[in-house]
Amino acid sequence: MLSINEPSWQAILDKSCHEPYYTNLIDQVLLAYASGKVYPDKNDIFKAFELCPFHQTKVVILGQDPYHGADQAHGLSFSVKKEGMMPPSLLNIFKEIKRDLGKEIPQEGSLVRWAEQGVLLLNAVLTVEAAQPGSHKHLGWERFTDQVIVHLSEKKENLIFLLWGAFAHRKKRLIDAEKHLILTSAHPSPLSCYRGFQGNGHFSQANYFLTKKGCQAIAW
User: Fold this and answer.
1) Residues whose CB falls within 8 Å of the CB of residue 133, separated by 6 or more in sequence, listed in order
2) Which of 16, 59, 105, 210 is the most exposed place for a label (fewest CB within 10 A)?
3) What is the pLDDT of residue 1?
4) C-alpha 217: how far from its chain's center?
5) CA pair distance 46, 210, nearest whole angstrom
């Protein structure tokens, strides 16, 4: 059985992981790994949770599903392996950080350092078949990750949710806006970033909110 090994998330999600839908989901995912090429590596499916424990989570960045090319996906939304080519959406994220905070664009696209500071880089769907974007939608991952968002909303306070693009915007219904800061904009994809992602100022706004609440800012 594929499962989360990080103790704080295990405690939060134990009930979900014993529901029939989850057993069926994992059965389908394991079958896909056995019969073809699936990303990320099986050991990285729950990497976002392992690097960012529940009790340390301060910011949530929601993606859709993993990158479907080689040497990219490693379990963190928008992030790629150090050796992977930087995707256009991620480059646009770094460009906005440079515009917003004056930080230079890094040479590689791994966001592990964000995760280790309390940024949960959560894809709504945690697996994908090679060269087939969206291929694991409707297996049950969305139900699982929706439950993750609900737990975060209900059990924590003063989180920051960065929701980019129409897909992510639909998750607002799961979040208590009176307890948490929700920042929305267009997606950083080259097809839409000019509609409001560029110039959204989300990274400085997030850090201002964190410091106002007495928390350490993120070194974006």
Assistant:
1) 65, 68
2) 105
3) 64
4) 19
5) 26
3-state class (DSSP) for residue 62: strand
**Rounded distance, CA 201 to CA 135, Å?**
33
Q: Is 180 helix (H, G, I), strand (E, B) or coil?
A: coil
What pLDDT was estimated at residue 96? 98
Which pLDDT value is given to residue 3? 83
pLDDT in tens, 68-103: 999 999 999 999 999 889 999 999 999 999 999 999
CA distance 64 to 125: 6
Q: What residues of the chain score a pLDDT lower than 70?
A: 1
Pair of tokens at residue 208: 């201002």
Distance, first Cα to last Cα, the chain: 35
Task: Quote the pLDDT of residue 2.
Answer: 79
Q: What is the 3-state secondary structure of 129-155?
A: ECCECCCCCCCCHHHHHHHHHHHHHHH
Cα–Cα distance measured from residue 109 to residue 82, given in angstroms and rounded to the nearest whole number: 6
CA-based angle 56:84:121, to the nearest 5? 20
Residue pair 124/65 in contact by the 8 Å Cβ criterion: yes
Catalytic residue among 27, 41, 65, 71: 65
Distance between CA atoms of residues 115 and 59, nearest Å: 9
pTM: 0.97
CB 67 within 8 A of CB 80: yes
- Please state whether the peptide bond connecting residue 53 to the residue before it is cis, i.e. omega within 30 degrees of 0: no
Is 44 a catalytic site residue?
A: no
Token reading at 212: 């106002």
